Automatic annotation (TrEMBL):
Residues 247-261 form the Glucose-methanol-choline oxidoreductase N-terminal domain. This is Oxidoreductase. Belongs to the GMC oxidoreductase family. Coiled coil: none annotated. Keywords: FAD, Flavoprotein. FAD binds at V84, V210, G477. Its cofactor is FAD. PANTHER family: GLUCOSE-METHANOL-CHOLINE GMC OXIDOREDUCTASE (PTHR11552), OXIDASE (CODA), PUTATIVE (AFU_ORTHOLOGUE AFUA_8G04090)-RELATED (PTHR11552:SF152). InterPro entries: FAD/NAD-bd_sf (IPR036188), GMC_OxRdtase (IPR012132), GMC_OxRdtase_N (IPR000172), GMC_OxRtase_C (IPR007867). One of its GO terms (molecular function) is oxidoreductase activity, acting on CH-OH group of donors. It comes from Gandjariella thermophila. The keyword Flavoprotein applies.
Length: 505
């Protein structure tokens, strides 16, 4: 059939899309279609085995978006976006933090009514994912010693469960969405879709690409145009709503291709303007991080969940209850960027990645052409905030990492600092290295930001409805008005749960 109709058409079977599909199809009279550009993850051990995550980067299951030149950062960053059922929750490390209350209350204060902590945090208890602290058998000895060294060197508490209550600082093993018995993911697809694949009112269209939203008179979203795996094209219609859950890159891309965005930019590409929304593709935010690497005195014990099982939060600004520096501790030498800068590769090593939880730099995404097959341009504008906050955070992070590395029991594991090396000591030198070696934790957000009616840059309202187009919502990480302190995946899952309630009234 070239044309099919459902109550709801969900574009993207990823982190939020899987949640929406499961919740909306609980009503047996509601016909739900999920259109996913990638294949199923059912039975695919490459995807299901969490520790294999790093081998998915740049694979055929990765859309692999490049970054435009970054004069103050690293222009070689490739932004991984998953092309598989479950989206980035089938692709990432599944580190799982409930959002901190201050982050959600900031959303509400910015005009996102109904997104305050008191309203949103209870959704954490509804999540179907198996979110647990790293199991004892998976706690690598060097990661244990990192936690002990961090608490001793910095005077921060050891945290046994980062989701037990809000925290200001601390070190510990992360909570992860996984099955400790098998090491398999508890992704959004595993938790929400695998148990209900036989629902007669739920259809999955896999390896099917959505190139445009069909917008009729009103204007109102009527459905989507698709290209199927066999190359044929067709239309899929939504009698109630089209729900765009394609993520912070492909959701704005799809809106722009469909005539929803800044009018002048659309006309330059020959795209008919449906709704003049200049905020589409703007407010591109991320958690940039740098890296500091040590060689170890030999091989590291092999037990681990995903080789980045522990971390550290530091609060420099005591006027804010939220931490403002984060570190992942990798039990592997994450040297992609340092080798490019001329630093040596090492066989055995570890690294810390100082990360900016409240990055102030803002980027943008735009279309290069009206061709749906052409990748959009991503300009994160890393380290361009006028006050130099992001740059200083990385410098402080590199210094703090060295404090931890000099503390026993971690110190005895380490032979030497490989990158940047102990001769790099000044703020200027640490900044130059830190920015050039910078990477991403793959947290692009904010490109279809939610906001109040008087916010000219907002794309969706607090019920996630796209302004100026009826029957169309965006439900994914692109709606973040500002970045969360912590890894955002759980917040995106909660957005899916919240959206289901909003849609069902």
């Amino acid at each position: 059939m070239s044309e099919q109709a459902y109550d709801y058409v969900i574009v993207g079977g990823g982190t939020a899309g899987a949640v929406l599909a499961a919740r909306l199809s609980e009503d047996p009279d509601c016909r739900v279609c999920v259109i996913e550009g990638g294949p199923s993850d059912v039975g695919d051990r490459r995807v299901l085995e969490l520790r294999n995550w790093i081998n998915l980067l740049g694979s055929e299951l990765d859309y692999d978006y490049p970054t435009v030149e970054q004069p103050r950062g690293n222009s070689f960053i490739r932004h991984s976006r998953a092309r598989v059922l479950g989206g980035c929750s089938s692709h990432n490390t599944l580190i799982s933090f409930a959002p901190l209350p201050g982050d959600l209350d900031a959303w509400a204060a910015a005009g996102c009514t109904g997104w305050d902590a008191a309203t949103i945090l209870p959704y954490f208890d509804r999540l179907q994912n198996n979110i647990v602290p790293v199991a004892a058998k998976d706690r690598n000895p060097i990661a244990r010693d990192f936690v002990t060294a961090a608490t001793a060197a910095l005077g921060v508490p050891e945290i046994s469960d980062f989701n037990a209550k809000p925290f200001t600082d601390g070190a510990g093993f992360f909570s992860v969405a996984y099955d400790p018995e098998t090491g398999y993911r508890s992704s959004s697809s595993v938790a929400y879709l695998h148990p209900i694949l036989d629902r007669p009112n739920l259809e999955l269209m896999l390896e099917t690409w959505v190139g445009q939203i069909i917008i009729g008179a009103g204007p109102r979203a009527r459905g989507v145009r698709v290209r199927r795996p066999d190359g044929t094209t067709g239309e899929v219609y939504a009698e109630r709503e089209v729900l765009v859950c394609a993520g912070a890159v492909d959701s704005p891309r799809l809106l722009l291709l469909s005539g929803v965005g800044g009018a002048d930019d659309l006309r330059r590409l020959g795209i008919d303007v449906v709704a003049d929304l200049p905020g589409v593709g703007e407010n591109l935010i991320d958690h940039p991080e740098s890296v500091i690497i040590w060689e170890t005195d030999g091989p590291i014990p092999k037990n681990s969940v995903m080789d980045s099982d522990a971390g550290l939060f530091v609060r420099r600004d005591t006027s804010d209850p939220r931490p403002d520096l984060m570190f992942h501790f990798y039990q592997v030498p994450f040297s992609w960027n340092t080798e490019r800068l001329g630093y040596p590769a090492i066989e055995h090593g570890v690294c810390m990645t100082p990360n900016i939880p409240h990055s102030r730099s803002r980027g943008r995404l735009w279309l290069r052409s009206a061709d749906p097959a052409e990748k959009p341009a991503l300009d994160f504008r890393y380290f361009t905030d006028p006050d130099g906050y992001d740059e200083q955070t990385i410098v402080d992070g590199l210094r703090i990492a060295r404090q931890v590395a000099a503390q026993e029991p971690l110190k005895s594991w380490l032979v030497r600092e490989v990158a940047p090396g102990l001769d790099v000591t000044s703020d200027e030198a640490l900044s130059e290295y830190g920015r050039r070696a910078a990477h991403t934790v793959y947290h692009p957000l904010g490109t279809c930001k939610m906001g109040a009616a008087d916010d000219p840059t907002a794309v969706v309202d607090p019920e996630l409805r796209v302004r100026g187009v009826d029957g169309l919502r965006v439900v994914d990480g692109s709606i973040f008005p500002s970045i969360t302190t912590v890894n955002p995946m759980v917040t995106v899952l909660m957005i899916g749960e919240r959206a289901a309630d909003l849609i069902r009234g």
